[in-house]
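Technical annex B. To support the medicinal chemistry partners, we prepared a structural model of the target in complex with guanosine-5'-triphosphate, based solely on the information shown next.
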Amino acid sequence: MLSLKRDKKEEEDGGGNPFNNLEKSTVLQEARTFNETPINPRKCGNILTKVLYIINQGESIGQTEATEAFFAMTKLFQSKDPILRRLVYLGIKEMSKIAQDVIIVTSSLMKDMTGKEDQFRGPAIRALCSVTDHSMLQSIERYMKQAIVDKVPAVSSAALVSALHLGKGSQEVIKRWVNEAQEAVNSDNVMVQFHALGLLYHIRKTDKLAVNKLVSKFSKQSLKSPYAYCLLIRIAAKLIEEEDAGSESPMFDFIESCLRHKSEMVIYEAAHAIVQLKNTTAKDLAPAVSVLQLFCSSPKPTLRFAAVRTLNKVAIKHPAAVTACNLDLENLITDVNRSIATLAITTLLKTGNESSVDRLMKQISTFMSEISDEFKIVVVQAIRSLCSKFPRKHNVLMTFLAQMLRDEGGFDYKKEIVDCIITTIEDNVEAKEAGLAHLCEFIEDCEHTVLATKILHLLGREGPRTPSPSKYIRFIYNRVILENAAVRAAAVSAIAKFGAHCDDLLNSCVVLLERCQLDTDDEVRDRATFYVNVLKQKQKALSSAYILNGLQVSVVGLERALHQYTLEPSEAPFDLKSVPLATQPIAEQKVRDVPGEVPSSKPTQDKVAASRQDVYQEQLAQVPELANLGALFKSSSPVEVTESETEYYVQCIKHTFNNYIVFQFDCTNTLNDQQLERVTVEMEPAEGFEVIKYIPCPLLTYNKPGTTYTLVRLPSEPTQDTSRKHLSDQVIICSSNLFTSLVTGTFACVLKFLVKDCDPQTGEPDEDGYDDEYVLEDVEVSVADHVQKVMKPNFAASWEEVGPENELEDTYALSNMSTLEEAITNIIQYIGLQPCERSDKVPEGKSAHTLYLAGVFRGGHDALVRAKLALDTSGVTMQLTVRSTDPHVSEVLATAVA
Amino acid sequence: MPFFDALARWLGMKKKEVNVMVVGLDNSGKTTIINHFKSPETKNHDIVPTVGFNVEKFKSKSLAFTAFDMSGQGRYRNLWEQYYKECDGIIFVIDSSDKLRMVVAKEELNLLLENPELKNRSIPILFYANKMDARDAVSSVKCSHLLELQSLSNKPWFICASNALTGEGLHEGVDWLTDQLKIVLQKKKK
Ligand SMILES: Nc1nc2c(ncn2[C@@H]2O[C@H](COP(=O)(O)OP(=O)(O)OP(=O)(O)O)[C@@H](O)[C@H]2O)c(=O)[nH]1
Ligand SMILES: [Mg+2]
C-alpha cells in the first residue's frame, strides 16, 4: 500500500517514469548487490536497468566507479536468466568506454557467441566487439568470420555490423573478412544482405575503382533486399558526385532504372538521389520528379511527406522541376497532416512569384498555431529566403515575423525569427528601422536572456547610426530597470555606444550610466563605471578603441596568456600585444542556409570554442623545436602542394610568428608497398628568408598521415628594425617595392625521404631502404600571411582613431577586372584583411562602391584600408588609402596591390 | 519454479551451491579440468586460452559448483582478486611439467595468500599437480615442496596429481573439496 502511494506520487511529478530522480551514487551503491550469491535475477536486472538509465541520461561516471560497477556486473554471468544476461550485454557495451580492464569478459562473451542459445549470440557479438581492442582482434577473428556466415540472420547481422564498427579502428583486419562478407551478401535475409553490402563497401571505400566494380556488379545481379538497393543507390550517387559526372555516367543509368523498382522505398531513394545530383539537366530530372509528383498524391502519409520534403529541399536549385508539381503541392496545403501542409506551402513560397506571397502567407497564418516549432522554423527559413529574393516585400514579411515573435514558441524558434530579422536588416537598408522597432518591442517581453543580450548588442551597433537614435535609448534603459544581471550589463554596453557615437546624446547617456553605477551586480557596475570614465574624456579615439570597437584578442588565447603571466609574475606589465588575435572564420560563416542545398552542419559560433588557430598554437607548442617562437600570429588555411591521386599527398599550412614562419606539411603516403622514414620538405628560400631547421616526420606508413615542419626566419625587416632606419636614410628612400619583397616570396619545395619497400599484405618493411625525393608545388608567402583579419564593427571610428599620420594614398587602374565584385574579391584575397560594415557586398546596380578593410600586421600594428572603387568602360579604378600605426605597414599594404 | 525449488530443498534434494575460483598460470590446464566435470552435452571440444574468465557450473556428489575459471596469462592475473571476496573455495592448478615457471606459480600463490580478502579466512585450497602424464612431470610431493606448502597453516589444503585429459586424480581432489566446503556450510548454519 505504502509503495503504491509513493508510485502514485512519483507519477504525478515524474510523468510516470519510475527512474526519474535517480541519484548516481545511490544507484552505484546498489550495484554492489551484483556481488551477492546466489544471484537474484529480478533484483539485479532492475538495478542494472537503473545503471543503464543514468548512463543514457548523460550522467558521467568516473573511471574508478565505473570499473567497480563493471566488475560487479561481470559476476552476473553466473546467472543463466535470459533477461538478465541480455541486460549484461547492454551494460558491457555502455561501460566498455569508461571502465578499465573490460577485456575480462572476452571469454565469457566468446562462449555465448558460439553457444547454443541463439538469442544470446547476436548481442554477445556486439558486446564482444565493443570490449575488443586492437591487440585482441586476432584472437576473435576466427569466430567473427564464422559468425558472419552463420545461418541465423540475427547472428550474421550482428557480426557484420560489429565488423563495421571495428573497421573504424583498424581497416586492416576486417579487410581479411571480405570473402565472408561476399558470401553473406547472397543471404536470403534482407537485413543480412544490407549489412553485408555495407561492410563490403566500407572495406573498399578508399579504392574508387573497386567501389565502381562493386556497384556495377550488384546492380546487375538483382539484390533481394530493398535496403541493400537503397544503399547501392547512395553509393552510386556518391560516385557520380565525386567524379563530378552527370547523367552520362553508367551509375546514373542504374539509379534511373531503380525508379521502376517494385519497392516504394527504392523508388523514393532513387528519385531523391537524382534530384540531389549537381550536374543534371531538366531532362534527367523529369522521371524522378514525376515519381515524386505521384507520391504527392499517395494515400500513405509517409510517402507524401517524403516527396514534399524532397521537393522542398531542391526547390531553389530546380525551380522549374518543382513548379511542375505546383498543382499537387497546392492540394497538399490543406493536408490533414500539418507537417506535410507546411512543407507544401514553404515549397510554393520558394518557387512562387512575388504576387503569390501574400496569398500563401495568409494561408500559413491560418494554422501557424497548430504546427510544431520544428516546422515553424521551416516557415521562418522560407521567409528568410523570400526576404532576400523579394526585398520589396519586406513590409509584409516583417509584419508576419513580428506577429510570430509575439506568439508562443520555444527558444530555437524565437532565435530563428530573431536571426531572420537581423539578416534582413543587414541586407536591406530599407527594412532596418522597421526591423529594429520589432526587436525593441520583442525585448520588452522576452524570456530568453541570450536573445535579449543579442538584440541589445545589435541595437548598440545599429541604433546610433539611424536618423533618430534617441528613440532606442528608452527601450534599452527599460531593460536596465527590469531585467536580470546579464541583460542589464548588455544594456549598459549598448547605451555607452550611443554616447560614444552621437555627440548630442553623450551627456544624457552619461547620466543614465551614472545611475547604473548603483546597480547591485558587480559586472553591471563595473561596466558602467568604465564607460562613464571613458566617455567623460570626450576623446573620439578612446571611445572608438574601448567602446565602439572593443577587444579583439582571442578569448581562449587571453585566458592562456594571463594564466601564464600569473605563473611567472614579472615586473613588466602584462602586454596585450602578446595575445593572439581573435581569428575571423575563414569562410564567411553567414552563408545563410541556401534552402535546397544539403543542410550544412550549422556552425555553432556562439560558444567560446577554441578556434582553429588556438588548436594549432597548442599543437606547435608540443614540438620542442617550435615551442619558443612566441605567440602564433596567424595560420593560413591548408593548400595542397601535390596533385590529387598521386603517390604522396601533401598539404601545407603556413604559421606566421613575429620573426618566423613555420611551414607545416601534412603528408599521406598512399602507396601500400612503401614505408617512408625521416621525411622532410626541403625548401629553397626566397631572398632574405633563411631556413633554420627541418623537423622530420620519423615514419610515414601507408595511409597514416604524418607531419613534418620547416622553420624559416623572416627577413629582419624595416617594420621592426628601427636602428636601420637611422643608420641610413637610403633604406627608406629605396623603392617601396623593397618592403613587399621583404615579406613575400616563392619557395621551391622538395619532399625528401628514405623509402623502405614493404609487403602490401602484412605491411612488413624491408631491412634496407634508399633515399628518394619528390618534387612538390611551390609555396607562396603573400602579404595576407602577415596580417590577421580583425572585424571593426564601427570602421569610421577606427579610421579616426588611427589618424592620418601614416596615411598613404594612390590610385590604380585594375584594367583586367570587369566588375566591382570581382575587384573586391581579388583585393580581399590578396591583402587578407577583414571587410567591415558589410562593404564587401555591392548593392545592386551601383557603379561606385567603397570597401573598408581592417586588420593587424604582424608585430601588432593596426592596419586599415579604404578602397574607393569605380566602374567604367576601361575596367575598375581604385583609389586606395591606407592608414596604420606604423609607416612601413602602410607601405607594404599600399604596394601589395600594385 | 520457486515452489519446486523450495519443495526440492525441503526434501533435501536440491544440492547446496558453492562458488569456487580456479586459478593458476596460463597453460596449466584449468579450463581443461573444469571441462572434464561438465556433463557430456555441455562439454567443450575446442579449448583455447581463456581471456578474462568464464563461469562454469558442475556438480559433485553433494554440491553444485559455480566455478570462475580465470585466465592465467600475466596481464590478467591481477584481475583475480576482483573475484576473491565471494568465493568459498579455491582450486589452484599447477603444470607439474613446467619446472621453469614453478617459482612464478609460487609467487602468484603467495600474492593470493597475502591478499587482504583471503589472508585471514580459513578457505580451503585444492592444488592439482596437473599434467602428471607428461614425461618430465614432478610428483605431487615434490610439487608441494617447491611451492613450500608445508608452511601454509591457516587454511585447509590438499594436493593431488592429476591428468585433465583422462580425468585421473580429478575426482579425488573435488571429493576432498566437497567435504571441506560442507564443513564450512555446516558451520555457517550454526
Ligand atoms: N598432457 C597434458 N596436457 C594437458 C593436461 N591438462 C591440460 N593440458 C593441455 O594444456 C593446454 C592448456 O590447457 P588449458 O586448459 O587451456 O589451460 P588454462 O590453464 O586454462 O590456460 P589459460 O586459460 O591460458 O589460463 C591444452 O593444450 C590442454 O590440452 C594434462 O593433464 N596433460
Ligand atoms: Mg583457460
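Notes passed to the chemistry partners:
Strands of chain B lie at 16-24, 53-59, 63-70, 89-95, 125-130, 157-161.
Chain B has seven helices and six strands.
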